[in-house]
Amino acid sequence: MNLSARNISFAIKDLTILRDIDLEIQGGKTTVLLGPNGAGKSTLMKILSGYLKATGGEVMIAGCDPEKISLEARARMLGVLTQRSSLEFPFTAREVIAMGRMPFGVSEGFDEVTQELLSMFGVSADQSYLTMSGGEQQLVQLCRVFAQVWGRGSEAFLLLDEPMTALDLRYQSKIASTLKKLSLQGLGQLVVMHDINLAAELADEIVLMSHGKVVAKGSAEEALKVDNLERTFDTVINQLGGGSERYFRAELEK
Amino acid sequence: MKIAALVLVVCVLAVASLLFGSADVSLKDLFRLLSHNDDPGLSTIVLDIRLPRTLLALLVGAGVSASGAAIQGMFRNPLADPALIGVSAGAALFAAIYVVLDGSQGLSLIGMTGSAFVGGLLTTWIVLVVGGRGGGLSTILLAGIAINAIALSGVGMLSYLSTDMQLRSISFWALGSLNGATWVSVLLALAIPVVVFLIFLESRNLNVITLGDEEAEHLGVSHQKLRVRIVSLCAVAVGIGVALTGVIAFLGLVVPHLVRMTLGSNHRTVVPASALLGGMLLLVADVISRTILAPTELPVGILTALVGGPFFIYLIMVEQKGRLVL
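Above: the input entities. Below: the structure tokens describing the complete assembly.
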């Protein structure tokens, strides 16, 4: 099952946000979107998830126009983590994670998937979401999205907008291994992130975006080159090491 | 379990409320009335005056509070109030128009209630249409605030133009009172539990919408359709309540908040618990309002605002203590 975008463009009045984007997310593969703030990554994510309609081009989920798939059916095919989820009510962690099971008619939080995620990530089930730190809240939101695709294998996709935001190293590594595990189960993934080095480790394909356009794409080895990164981020990038030991960092401005 | 406990307390309070008022009625009198109804005076006080009033308080309190829970969930704001969608102000405006235009001395219940109900629904519809154009929740909120202000200035204008008698009717109604409760008003209010049940059926959707419009859509819930359903249901529940009893301040804001603080945020609990607690609190407020200055009555809306306001401030302060500032 594939999730594809052909010649996607998006504009609000005279402001063009995306131009001619082609992208394909295949089952069992992880695509990582890298680019500076304002490059259009989140907008592209919203279009791929069916929340926004592109002003040009077409999106196909498993060969179907997302508009022709009911919201309920789409919710069983796509798990989406948005960048900003507000929650102003003291739901418990269990209740928030269980919301991810709603498309499957389960929502009380005592189902197997919710229990498994709670114990796997060591989330304290009955703690109020509002008393959690930013990182813990992000972890709970991630678990909610995982709950939506857990065990679905190649029947679903995962679209994550900056999943590592606010997570400490331990949770970053735990999330990264979970993504790898889900990928092995056949789940197609699109992940927006800012950590080039983590992206290189996770991605089957990397897409570099800047000013609403694709600057380069390919495997980590093909796409992650100093000149591509400098064009993308408009800053000086240094490469340390080589081969599989490559490491990139932005040079500090003097 | 907690809901069952609330139901039990509501039943006890409902029976207790029949005992309070300007005439003394004892528990023994109530049993006598049930076993052999031989006292027409007692029967009139309990069955024709206090019982409909008790039931109306429970029904209206339930409708306003369950709507408050739904509106807060939908607006993702624990400080939202059903009045935000314009239903109360619209009902007040149309009630005032009816009072001023009606030449007769005695106002008919159906005329007044009908005008208020239509006004509430119409204003809510305008808020939805105007606010919906912007697409976001904040535009609905802003439209609600603007249309509320327009409707209330209309009430002000009509009050200015009205005679003393009419002014008294308008202000008494605007302050909220269960004084006019009859079996006809209880019959009309029986639509409220049906609407509350329909709101309850939206509980899971309300849970999900608190995450955000986009998140709800990704979980299979259309935020636009849910918004129209919730606003319409709340407009009917609050519209009937306001039409029958006038504006009951603060209940729709405080009750769901109190429920969330004690029973959590799951709307499958919050909606029914708010309905029960709201009915209970309005009943208690009404008993106090009719006994505190007996033989005259304090409009219950004054009491709910007078007690509800400071209590709400207290709740906010307690809540802030338990919440990390991150």
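Note for the figure: The radius of gyration of chain B is 20 Å.
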